[in-house]
Amino acid sequence: MTSVLVTGASGTTGSRVAARLAERGVTVRAAGRSSATRFDWYAPDTHAAALAGVDRMYLVPPPRDPAPQDVMLPFLDLARTCGVRRAVLLSNSLVPAGGPMAGTVHQAIAEMFGEWAVLRPTWFMQNVIGGHAHAIGIRATSAIATSAGSGRAAFIDAGDIARVAVEALLAPEAVNADPILTGPESLSYDEVAAILTETSGHVITHTRLDPAEQPAYYEALGVPAHTARFLVGMDAVVASGVEDRTTDVVRRITGTPPRSFRDFAVAEFRS
Ligand SMILES: NC(=O)c1ccc[n+]([C@@H]2O[C@H](COP(=O)([O-])OP(=O)(O)OC[C@H]3O[C@@H](n4cnc5c(N)ncnc54)[C@H](OP(=O)(O)O)[C@@H]3O)[C@@H](O)[C@H]2O)c1
Predict the structure, then answer these.
(1) pLDDT digits (tens, 9 = 90+) for 190-243
(2) Which one of 28, 37, 82, 250 is at 20 to 30 Å from 206 when CA atoms are compared?
């Protein structure tokens, strides 16, 4: 019987992956420091119990760790020993195999597991709700403040990432690739603000920040300093134009197209 370990199970993608797997009748082990199965990347004594009896796993790296391989590579070894045969890693569109952040783990997964996928989504639509810095800024100031200028990104719904992850975990044929996942269209933050205004009924603008003033702006809103600094780099990427692209991966792997930002916003703000 198929049994899947879902790490980051309380998070944006993991919660959706776990729910969709359960809908498919799969046994799900929801893991994390606050989940049903207590699991902490930095507490190796929690790892074996999380892996016992599972044959597939969805991996969300430890947040904000610049070297997640230090804790994830020993875990991958243990997972193989415990009989896990398929691994699906959440990375991001900017990081190639062997690159920074999850890049080392990305490369290792492709080499260690006969069945694998590394999902590389672009910016999440869910960044404008919940605890993300943009959402905090919107609630506090009715503005989404970036240094991305007129740069565009093909924002993706976390639900679509989860749909791809579930197929990557369950389909008879493993993906064995590292696809870039995008929404259906790329949007500037001006366009994002316009859609949020139209769907929420509140005027939300895009404030164009100078990169030098951006960390202080967000720190004043209570965003942690490392996150505020991280946003500057991310906005520079969007400003450069490299995220102005779409792929057909969601449709190809799931059979249905990804949700548009407008449909996401309507569901969030009009329901
Ligand atoms: N936001 C974006 O636009 C974007 C775009 C592309 C890629 N990504 C990638 O998405 C990933 C984040 O995924 P997400 O949004 O699904 O997660 P998330 O909502 O940020 O939640 C993080 C999850 O990790 C768990 N966690 C935190 N510390 C942990 C620890 N020490 N040990 C075990 N689990 C721990 C948390 O649960 P507990 O606190 O209960 O442990 C939570 O379930 C990042 O790697 C990021 O690079 C994000």
Answers:
(1) 999 999 999 999 999 999 999 999 999 999 999 999 999 999 999 999 999 999
(2) 250
Residue type, 234: M
Query: Rounded to the nearest whole angstrom, what is the distance from the C-alpha of residue 155 to the centroid of ligand 1?
Result: 17
Beta bridge partners of 119: 90
For ligand 1, whether the C-beta of 41 sits within 6 Å is yes
Domains of the chain: 3-121 (3.40.50.720), 124-157+182-244+259-271 (3.90.25.10)
Q: Residue 137: enclosing H or E segment and its boundaries?
A: helix 133-141
14 lines ligand 1 (CB under 6 A): yes
Question: Are 28 and 22 contacting, i.e. CB atoms less than 8 angstroms apart?
Answer: yes
Pairing of strands 152-153, 115-121: unpaired
Q: What is the pLDDT of residue 1?
A: 76
